[in-house]
């Protein structure tokens, strides 16, 4: 929706709330509209006021918890996530929220368990949960398990254009397994679609060097410098490229 549409919706739903203050759906729609127009604190207040209208509704608690987390209040988010699970131990969004909170604490073991619970309670393959689980496995030093999660996404959504974060996780898992050619090729695809951050462009350059493809590494690192000419690691890599080329030539003569 465009901003004007959200603003119009907010006015309409504010009136609906005034006319039916005990209508849970109206309160929640109003809260979502406030959130999407940047009124985050007001949205949270609306959700807090909606909770007593459906105190045993896991969805309400989980959505409030997600708002708390996105607004930078993780303690309250944790309380809401646990309350949602008390209401419905099989509600996947509550487990996903708990997983995100565990990642925030760098508690990847707990995050993995929460994401597994979220995945097992979802109807079919849930891409967001699988990507979170893949990232968690990789950060735990288990890239093979990460690739297995990514594979499930590709199998379930074969033929569809997937978001960049799927390809990024796949590339990083390849890198961690030492499969640098595959990692570099995947990152090159994403770079050609302008879907890499400057940090990931630098990772692409590193993978190309590890794969022994120095011309491609030079192109990748120059992509970094085109964005930030003072990027320290990229400048250092450019300075090292002549030595890498010399080493490659010497290896070919042997």
Q: Short description, anyone?
A:
With 254 residues, this protein is mainly α. The chain is built from 14 helices and no strands.
Let me know the largest β-sheet: none
Q: Considering DSSP H and I runs of 4 or more, what fraction of the residues is helical? A: over 70%
Q: Helix and strand string, N-terminal first?
A: HHHHHHHHHHHHHH
Number of strands: 0
Which class best fits the helix and strand makeup? Answer: mainly alpha
Q: Nearest-angstrom radius of gyration?
A: 23 Å
Distance between the termini: 63 Å
Overall mean confidence score, pLDDT = 90
Tell me the overall shape.
elongated
Topology record:
Layout: H1 3-19, H2 24-36, H3 40-50, H4 58-70, H5 74-87, H6 92-104, H7 108-120, H8 127-139, H9 143-156, H10 164-176, H11 180-192, H12 198-210, H13 214-227, H14 232-253
Helix pairs in contact: 1-2, 2-3, 3-4, 4-5, 4-6, 5-6, 6-7, 7-8, 8-9, 8-10, 9-10, 10-11, 11-12, 12-13, 13-14
